[in-house]
Amino acid sequence: MAWIRTVAASEADETLRQAMEMQKPMYPMEYATPVHPAEGGGSEIVASHSLIPQALFHAFATFGALMAPDLPLQRRQHEMIATVVSVTNRCVY
């Protein structure tokens, strides 16, 4: 459970719902199912940004843009970089 207050997707206002939905299409379809689901379905890491919807969108849209299939790196290279960064930061995601 996050140590900060979060807003569950089921309780989100329109601004938060839009921020959550707009960043999803930028990710590979394998990301559609959260590894660590939050209450109400979404991802805990996304929920941790729920108090500031604009920050939520921009933070996750940035990663989505960095994973874009039209960039010169292959998907497996993007995933390898993301994995090394997560390990370096001692993050489970």
N-to-C span: 15 Å
Strand content: under 5%
- The total of beta strands comes to 0
Structural category: mainly alpha
Helix fraction, binned, reads 40-55%
| Number of helices in the DSSP assignment | 4
Contiguous low-pLDDT stretches (5 residues minimum) are: none
Largest sheet: none
Shape label: globular
Question: Your description of this structure?
Answer:
With 93 residues, the chain is mainly α. It has a domain of 60 residues. Helices cover 45% and strands 0% of the residues. It is built from 4 helices and no strands. The chain is globular, with a radius of gyration of 14 Å. It starts with 13 loop residues before the first helix and ends in a 5-residue tail after the last helix. The model has no long low-confidence stretch (mean pLDDT 84).
Task: Please tag this protein with its features.
single chain; 93 residues; mainly alpha; 4 helices; 45% helix; globular
Layout of secondary structure:
Elements: H1 14-23, H2 44-47, H3 53-66, H4 75-88
